## 1
Amino acid sequence: MARVKIGGHLILSYEFENYRDTYWVSLSKFIIEKYGKKEFDEHFEVEAILLDCFQFLVDEFKALIYEEESLSFFNYVFYLNEESWDFLIKTRSGLSFGEIDENDFSRYRRILKLVLEQGCDIDLIWGEFPTSQEVYRMDEKIQKLFYLGIWIYTFADYISFQKMITDAKKINFDDNDYIGVYWKRHYGESYAQLFPKTEDDYVKGVFEEKAVDELKVAINECFEIDYDFAGGLIFEIKKHFSKSKFQTIEPYVLPINLLKKYSIDKRVAECFYDGLSLSRENKMSIEDVILKPYSTERYMYRPILIYQVAGVARALVGEGKFGEAIYVLATNAISWNTIPLDWRENKCMVKYMSRKGNEHDSILEDKVEEILLSKELRFCRNIKSFKRKGLDNINIDNEVAGEIDFIIVDEERKRIIVADSKYNKAKYEAVGFRTDYTNFSNKYEPKILKKVDWISNNKLIVQEHLKIIYKIEELDISKFEVEGLFFINTPTFYMFNGNYKAITLNQLDNYLSSEYQEEKVKYTSEEGQNYLIEHPYFK
């Protein structure tokens, strides 16, 4: 087990060889006893086995955590989590990850949070300050949890892909009776070629630079407090007892002390802190945390951990985590109509959330417009009606078609692009991709189809509208092809497998160029036949 120190911060690195013989053997034996040893490729049977594997690993993960009765263990995990945040901040300022794999580090942080959340369920004792031998024991346990956690998230991804793609996976066993999960058909080649190329799409997505400051202003106005004071109050109370970062406080004192500063209703003060608190009353199960990753009932968004220690509620709060929570709330929740459930009592906060939700598509649309102007393409944006000379406008902002975000005329390639913008939340795992895939397939596709059909049947109306707004006499788009399209902010699985193309902001300039060529995946079948797979790549 490797303990690594980079930039002054302690990180536990991922090692798996020591635990494969324990957990992978047990998992494989469990599946063989239940289903038999053979190759499985029938869709629903494979899905059932994947779900059983996921639950088996979750149960092993829980069992390890629930062995712990002392606050000391969770204090140590808390310390590692705070160290990981401080280290992450430094990497954003140029510090190298060194020997740590960046993807493993991301999973490491996620699993530390998962462990800390489970502590809410346990009736803890105070415990002693750990000896070096006890720290070694804790390191060993955290390494086991790291191993199990990575495979829990991996199987969650397997399940999501199996649900999104018809017959995505097959399962078999090697000569050592180890279970293996594999892609079917050409899907492995498609995944390996396409997904690594999305890295720049994440980096170059639109980001609301003032999101955190705006959220703080909204909190100040809606709760009639000062956010920085209310947060700082936690750490001032901690210092009253000791300077230890592990110092806990009784959570009920927070609203009481806030009321000494502000003349607000007690319930308002309680609501503020409740929205940032995670306890056994509102925490999610491990299964739900993984399979519903964008709920705010998680430590990711709620930095005040409330543990039961010696029969008394005690709040454990880290300065790093408190800062991270407001950041993720501002950048990964509010604009998608999501706030902590407790804050929904505050009508002002609900109003702010709704306003941000209505605004966020326009942020992406503004960037798209900049690219269209630089390409000198004719387009119209947020079209609710079409102008006509000497006649009333034709309204389409109804069941006829609905508002269209962009209509773009590409004269060089003789096409009319009908596009809707979707400022999608950044997702990095198949569980999140599946949410997008469902939304695009079931909600957005029927809408874009209706718009494409209307434009296809009314090209002359679009043509007249463009002549009027651009003040031109010559324009003929009557024989142009009509193409439906989605503009998206960050990559998601739908872009590789949807009935319509979805283009990230990073790809848009290239997509609109005359030299654009759609990516093809090279695939050689087991029979030796060579294929070029085109979009959609997983059908």
Note: The chain has three domains: 3-184, 211-351, 377-533.
## 2
Amino acid sequence: MQSDQPNALSRKEHLRLEREELILRVALSLLKESGLNGLTMQAIANLTEYSKGTIYQHFTCKEDVLAKLVIRCGQRLIALIDLALDNSEGLRHKVVMVSWAFFINAELESETAGLVSMVKSPEFQTKISESQQKAISVIDQSILSRVIGLFTQQSDISADKVKVGAFGWWAMKWGVQDVLVNDWEMSRLGFDDPKRYFFESLHVFLDGLGVQRDSISHDFETVQAHAKQIFQNH
């Protein structure tokens, strides 16, 4: 009997993970079709054919479900950032490629990426489990450490400009990502291609920090093609 127990526990956990995967797939589908208002625990139960009690065994509320989706979005982003860092050279090129990683992730996770700001708000955080709060914090720290590490490991920028550079880049990138995932009508303001304007602005910003120019980071089409090559399987 004792030798069978680990297998029984393993199967139980496997079934639990399968249920969770289905719940998250259904939640994402509801987000795509009906938006936040259409995402309820009852709607998830109806489409999974689980009882609401079963849904609540996995997630305490719909905010917990949303947090889990955002956590997965963040985990994918970290993987893309690491890919970008491994496939670029020099500070300017790395900054450009990592920026592309954020935009590619937003395209792949368009519904979820648009929720990041909401999920990080203090009001939202009070509604989710402590484990979800910690997971979000870990992802934030992982991303920030990569951003700051990128600036500190290169000799282009003086030590007193590292935090300024990291924060400025982070703020620019998140601002444009918010424009993209929430479909702002920037063409009315004369910005038909926000992504292209971002990269032109990014180079002005990097020039101001004293980052060395290179021959591979400035042509938008070339950089875009390189990014697609790097991220094509993700």
Note: The chain has twelve helices and no strands.
## 3
Amino acid sequence: MHTVRRLVGLLVAVVLVSTPGAWAQLPSNELEGTWRMVSQELVYPDSVVDQSGSWGANVKILNSTHFAWGRETEDGESVLAGGGRYEYHPERDVYVEHIQYHSDPSMSGVTLRFEARVEGDTWYHIGEVGDYKLREVWKRVDPRQVQAELRNDTTRGEGTAVGAGDP
């Protein structure tokens, strides 16, 4: 499947276009770069639902001002995506997403606030989304590694590369 290749290509294009010249700048904060989701949990008052196995490729790319996110559905047949502006305040452990576009129209215009911290190449955040808290862990990846995985999976005829196997 070419779903993952289209997803990563779209995400890269959106981030590069969002801030002219961003690709020529040094990172302005520790979140800039490409991230792969390692785990996702929906935390309700009386239970925790682990969503980690319910998606395929799941990538977030951030430049100094904007983010683009996309994930493949578990069957690899569809892509969910969104993006917009973000704020990161490491001194207060706060990450805020201002969603400007999303494959689910009800999410466009939504602002999500997360408690966030980065430890090495791992980014942890948790924040309220409706009646639950969304707890996610992301691992920084080298975009060249993602591209190589996509090329390898395409030549083998597989559709999912990012998010499969080890983080």
Note: Residues 12-24, 159-167 have pLDDT under 50 and may be disordered.
## 4
Amino acid sequence: MNMQMLYLIVPLAPLVGAIIAGLFGKWVGRTGAHLATIAGVAVSLIASALVFQDVLAGHTFNGTVYTWMVLGDLRFEVGFLIDSLTAMMMLVVTFVSLMVHIYT
């Protein structure tokens, strides 16, 4: 798995967990919905830790994920800038988010 995939997993894993809990919560019950959302945030925390480890090794990333719109010479792009501050904040936010999901 390449690092760009990990960058996408960090925000998308909790989203997938929320979608699963929202769409299938009636069938899996309250406990199943909790497990789905906690698993999504836990996967995001693991991906954040791997990104942090990669940044500590000296790798940074500044790239475009996709181009949203082009108007003449003006391009609207969606991308990521991953440096040491970003990686540390990702790790802190995903850790706190996991603790909130577990203990509430």
Note: The chain has one domain: 3-103.
